[in-house]
């Protein structure tokens, strides 16, 4: 494999080694789709060109809860138990901005589509909007009756969906901060909620061990998915909106068919709570993180683990850059790691 990479890098095109690795990864995925025998070959390739630690971002003084990329992939927003939200430049690793105002742990933060506004949620039972340039708080949203665990922006940028220990999922208008819809079904804390790619549905996961699928327009529950045997920490849509991937304190990752509501695959390998999960943009690979201090990459088709990254600290959250080439992880050791 080293010989192949070196030979390609020595051609007249003079491709950067990074580009050569991307090309080989794409070859592996194509062969996997077409031939179905490539699983062991992928593992061999990953030994040579697998995901590697690129840099570490330091600045938070408490465990980091979440990390999310901007839409252009050039910045990361992080949230922490130190009660701050921070913006980082991916290329340089430098801290760009710090937002102070939350009075308790900040559980999640995300960029709005304009790239200049940040939303965050906290144990202080608020959702806040921030101006990225000035660092000033723009709006404070109150309404939940308990800790706000997670939040996401709709694909059109008009709405925020939030989930809370009060057992509700709520929709908020970005411009006014007003609540426009409330969805209630879970019997315990709602740990995660997210819009589908087309913006027509919401998926939520709960400490009650279930996953709910909701219609955004009506606010009605469409399906409930059961199978996990402990808290369902995250549930997220595949890039084509055909599947949901979920992870749980039961140490498993599960893939569900949205149309039928049936569980179609269980991915096992983590040895402790699985905290976060996400599809790569191509829909062929999943990345997960866990209290077992690892990040793992999985082949969606086979369900097999492709690579395990040792972090040496509990990994609370992960995200993938829009181009699929970079992973960011948040961990309990107060650090953000960038992987490529």
From TrEMBL:
WD repeats lie at residues 57-98, 99-140, 141-182, 183-224, 225-266, 267-308, 315-340. CDD domains: WD40. GO terms for biological process: mRNA splicing, via spliceosome. Keywords: Repeat, WD repeat. It comes from the Eukaryota. Its main location: nucleus. It is found in: Nucleus speckle. The keyword Repeat applies. Gene3D superfamilies: YVTN repeat-like/Quinoprotein amine dehydrogenase. PROSITE patterns: WD_REPEATS_1 (PS00678), WD_REPEATS_2 (PS50082), WD_REPEATS_REGION (PS50294). GO terms for cellular component: nuclear speck. This is WD40 repeat-containing protein SMU1. The lineage of its organism: Eukaryota, Sar, Rhizaria, Retaria, Foraminifera.
């Amino acid at each position: 494999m080293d010989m192949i990479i070196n030979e390609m890098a020595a051609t007249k095109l003079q491709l950067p080694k990074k580009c050569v690795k991307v090309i080989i990864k794409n070859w592996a995925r194509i062969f996997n789709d077409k031939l179905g025998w490539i699983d062991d070959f992928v593992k061999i390739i990953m030994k040579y060109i697998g995901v590697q630690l690129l840099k570490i971002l330091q600045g938070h003084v408490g465990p980091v809860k979440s990390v999310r990329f901007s839409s252009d992939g050039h910045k990361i927003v992080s949230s922490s138990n130190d009660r701050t939200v921070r913006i980082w430049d991916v290329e340089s690793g430098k801290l760009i901005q710090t937002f102070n105002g939350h009075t308790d742990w900040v559980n999640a933060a995300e960029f709005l589509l304009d790239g200049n506004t940040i939303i965050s949620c906290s144990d202080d039972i608020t959702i806040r909007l921030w101006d990225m340039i000035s660092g000033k708080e723009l709006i404070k949203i109150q309404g939940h009756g308990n800790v706000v665990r997670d939040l996401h922006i709709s694909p059109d940028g008009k709405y925020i969906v939030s989930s809370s220990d009060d057992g509700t999922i709520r929709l908020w208008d970005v411009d006014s901060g007003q609540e426009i819809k409330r969805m209630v079904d879970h019997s315990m804390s709602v740990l995660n909620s997210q819009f589908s790619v087309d913006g027509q549905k919401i998926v939520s996961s709960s400490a009650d061990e279930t996953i709910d699928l909701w219609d955004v327009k009506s606010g009605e529950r469409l399906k409930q998915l059961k199978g996990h045997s402990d808290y369902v920490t995250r549930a997220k849509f595949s890039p084509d909106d055909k599947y949901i991937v979920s992870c749980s304190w039961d140490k498993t990752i599960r893939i569900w068919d949205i149309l039928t509501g049936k569980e179609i695959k269980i991915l096992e390998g983590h040895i402790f709570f699985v905290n976060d999960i996400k599809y790569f943009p191509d829909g062929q690979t999943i990345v997960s993180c866990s209290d077992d201090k690892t990040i793992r990459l999985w082949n969606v088709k086979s369900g097999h683990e492709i690579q395990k990254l040792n972090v040496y600290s509990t990994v609370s959250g992960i995200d993938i850059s829009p181009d699929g080439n970079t992973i960011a992880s948040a961990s309990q050791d107060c650090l953000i790691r960038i992987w490529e």
